[in-house]
Write a structure and sequence with these properties.
Elements: H1 5-11, E1 16-25, E2 28-38, E3 43-47, H2 54-61, E4 69-74, E5 77-78, H3 84-91, E6 94-97, H4 109-120, H5 125-138, H6 154-165, E7 172-176, H7 184-201, E8 204-208, H8 212-218, E9 221-226, E10 229-235, H9 236-244, H10 255-265, H11 271-274, H12 278-286, H13 302-315
Parallel strand pairs: 3-8, 3-9, 6-7, 7-8
Antiparallel strand pairs: 1-2, 1-4, 4-5, 9-10
Length: 333
């Protein structure tokens, strides 16, 4: 399910527009025909399992890598056609919160936040100092401005990284796994901070995550990736309905809906786990095509192995008991 043309007209022009993105690394297709629109002031959550293409899509959106096919537009401009200078100017209009915070360890929290202002503006040091205090106050870190990254917690590093991302007053904020590595309470605080900043500043947010509690807390709309394909883009309510549907309705879902439901619920059984069979592992290990695993390496069942071992023990000659005394034997002279 995706947005209809009438729905798109109601939202206005997208701030981020991805069209028919294809990206290959060698023989592997990581993104395959991806389309996505992100509209002004909304929070779009991009989710999917490990290796689904989430981070690769994010790297395309920020211009870190170029697609093999397709375009990415920010603010109505195709960043794939920009030269380095044009791309750098566009990057001043968005901020990025990296998964680790990506702070400079030799600089204080305040110096980290001030760095983009010092590099990309002509503001006086006094004005920069005021701006730094404002950004740190937004994320609740003003009293920790003098500390080094080694002196603050993981959650505080994330907030400091967010303050730095806000330093140039961006119109878009990109988040790469903002809750990764955080305890539940700190993760919830980061979620509320994202919501508050979106409301207060009116920024457009794109959040890559596989943390479902966080996703359902912050999202206006959600996009589900699987093996480089975009399965569905829809409002949060659609995903909530699919997640919370009674078990007796499961049979009416399509295979893709069952896959999404399993991911949203974190169920141990379903289409995602059904992919991970022993044959898949053996075939991948040997680099063989499908259904071409040699007989000599096919994994026997546990019962077969036990039966074979039992038969071997029955047929084998009795071994001497090491606790019994040895009888005299004549050694030929």
């Amino acid at each position: 399910m995706s947005d209809s043309p009438d729905h798109e007209k109601d939202r206005g022009q997208p701030t981020v527009r991805v069209r028919n993105i294809v990206k290959r690394f060698g023989d592997q297709t990581v993104l395959n025909g991806i389309n996505l629109d992100v509209y002004p002031g909304e929070t779009m959550v991009i989710m999917g399992g490990s290796g689904s293409g989430k981070s690769t899509l994010l790297r395309h959106m920020i211009g870190s890598i170029q697609p093999d096919v397709g375009i990415v537009e920010l603010f109505g401009q195709n960043i794939c056609a920009m030269n380095d200078h044009e791309l750098n100017e566009t990057r001043k209009r968005f901020g990025i919160l990296f998964q680790s915070g990506a702070l400079f360890n030799s600089m204080t929290v305040a110096q980290n936040v001030a760095l983009p202002l010092m590099e990309h503006t002509d503001l006086d040091p006094e004005i920069i100092a005021i701006q730094v205090k404002i950004k740190l106050e937004l994320v609740g870190l003003r009293e920790h401005a003098h500390k080094l990254p080694s002196q603050i917690s993981g959650g505080m590093k994330k907030r400091a990284g967010l303050a730095r991302a806000l330093s140039l007053d961006p119109r878009i904020l990109f988040y790469d796994e903002p809750s990764a590595g955080l305890d539940p309470v700190t993760s919830a605080e980061i979620d509320q901070l994202i919501i508050a900043l979106t409301r207060q500043l009116g920024v457009t947010s794109v959040v890559v995550t596989h943390e479902m509690d966080s996703a359902f807390t912050i999202a206006d709309r959600m996009a589900m990736l699987d093996r480089g394909r975009m399965l569905v883009v829809d409002d949060r309510a659609f995903f909530e309905q699919l997640r919370d549907a009674p078990e007796d309705q499961r049979g009416s879902f399509s295979e893709e809906q069952q896959l999404i439901r399993q991911f949203l619920r974190g169920d141990a059984e379903g289409p995602l786990s059904a992919r991970r069979t022993a044959d898949d592992y053996e075939r991948d290990l040997l680099g063989l095509p499908e259904n071409d695993v040699p007989a000599f390496i096919q994994t026997p069942s546990l019962q077969t192995t036990r039966s074979a071992n039992a038969e071997a023990r029955v047929d084998a000659p009795d071994e001497p008991d090491p606790t019994e005394p040895m009888t005299d034997t004549k050694v030929p002279m």
